[in-house]
């Protein structure tokens, strides 16, 4: 029986808990496909699964994002077909492998011109940017927006895309180096949150008016600054909690600060069907093809070197995206 190689974890802990091993090639079931991987995305959430911060049943594979070619399809699958190039970013866990079985409706079909390495390095971040700035609020030339962590993974894509759409972008970042990155990507104004208070600076930039939308993936540390940066009836999009979750909120604060709107969205609810997932992906692909969004070449590790990839990622020895190659 043919086998595939990949990474498994038998207990939670450091990178050394990952082992490179082999197992029987899985067979796709009803509504599933087997994808032979060409490139595998490494995301910080993978370290949470490995350490048990986000506990998964053990033993387990690891990884949520990859690109490759459909090698087999299960019963009931009419699309994609064997031989099609596809990518996915929502699991199931186990992408750190030569091949993996996923639900057919959780993948997108790739255009011929798009390299597997590029999409494996950016699909999750790219689709997150898409639903934030093209679905929750369709940003355009009339919008001035505040995007926190403009030099981060999602921020780098969003800042470029927002500028292409004609929006005025105010980005935050921590320290001179990250501020320079956000500025180079096209942000009109960059606020160093380590040395400046964000909301007063936003008011200064906007002539006291505030911004139409705030995109906040930081959470607890930026909650009040974000609300105080909004214009009357502005929209607060809280899409992450890098600094910890926002808790104990009195909804009356939205009225007091200008009849504000608040949403706490997730990607899965904006890509719930294969059609909506492919539509969001096609929109992102168009931004890549036009050059509106550019993705830096990722750092590449061999699949068998996933331990080193995690060690470097957590040790902040890398910049940009990381991928594994089978």
TrEMBL record:
Cross-referenced SUPFAM superfamilies: GroES-like, NAD(P)-binding Rossmann-fold domains
Domain Enoyl reductase (ER), residue spans: 13-324
Superkingdom to which the source organism belongs: Bacteria
Gene Ontology CC annotations of this record: cytosol
PROSITE patterns according to UniProt: QOR_ZETA_CRYSTAL
SMART domains to which the protein is assigned, alphabetical: PKS_ER (SM00829)
A molecular function (GO) term: quinone reductase (NADPH) activity
Any single Pfam family the record assigns to this protein: ADH_N
Record's keyword terms, sorted: NADP, Oxidoreductase
Gene3D superfamilies (UniProt xref): Medium-chain alcohol dehydrogenases, catalytic domain (3.90.180.10), NAD(P)-binding Rossmann-like Domain (3.40.50.720)
PANTHER family: QUINONE OXIDOREDUCTASE PIG3-RELATED, QUINONE OXIDOREDUCTASE-RELATED
Family matches, as NCBIfam families: PRK10754.1 (NF008024)
Name this protein carries in UniProt: Quinone oxidoreductase
């Amino acid at each position: 029986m043919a086998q595939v190689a990949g990474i498994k974890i038998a207990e939670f802990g450091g990178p050394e808990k990952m082992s490179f091993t082999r197992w029987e090639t899985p067979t796709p079931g009803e509504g599933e496909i087997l994808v032979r991987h060409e490139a595998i995305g490494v995301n910080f959430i993978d370290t949470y699964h490995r350490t048990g911060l986000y506990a998964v049943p053990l033993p387990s594979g690891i990884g949520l994002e990859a690109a490759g070619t459909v090698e087999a399809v299960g019963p009931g699958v009419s699309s994609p077909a064997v031989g099609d190039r596809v990518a996915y970013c929502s699991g199931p866990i186990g992408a750190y492998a030569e091949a993996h079985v996923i639900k057919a409706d959780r993948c997108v079909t790739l255009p011929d011109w798009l390299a597997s390495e590029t999409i494996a390095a950016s699909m999750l971040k790219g689709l997150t940017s898409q639903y934030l700035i093209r679905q929750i609020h369709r940003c355009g030339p009339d919008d001035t927006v505040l995007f926190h962590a403009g030099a981060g993974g999602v921020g780098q894509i969003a800042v470029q895309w927002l500028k292409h759409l004609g929006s005025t972008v105010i980005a935050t970042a921590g320290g001179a180096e990250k501020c320079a990155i956000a500025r180079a990507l096209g942000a009109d104004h960059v606020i160093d949150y380590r040395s400046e208070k964000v909301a007063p600076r936003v008011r200064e930039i906007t002539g006291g008016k505030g911004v139409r939308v705030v995109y906040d993936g930081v959470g607890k540390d930026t909650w009040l600054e974000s609300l105080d940066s909004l214009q009357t009836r502005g929209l607060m999009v809280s899409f992450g909690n890098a600094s910890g979750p926002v808790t104990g909120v009195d909804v009356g604060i939205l009225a007091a600060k200008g009849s504000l709107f608040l949403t706490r969205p997730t990607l899965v609810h904006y890509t719930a069907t294969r059609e909506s997932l492919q539509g969001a992906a096609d929109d992102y692909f168009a931004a890549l093809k036009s050059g509106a969004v550019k993705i830096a070449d990722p750092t590449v590790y061999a699949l068998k070197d996933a331990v080193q990839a995690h060690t470097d990622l957590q040790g902040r020895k890398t910049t940009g995206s990381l991928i594994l190659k089978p």
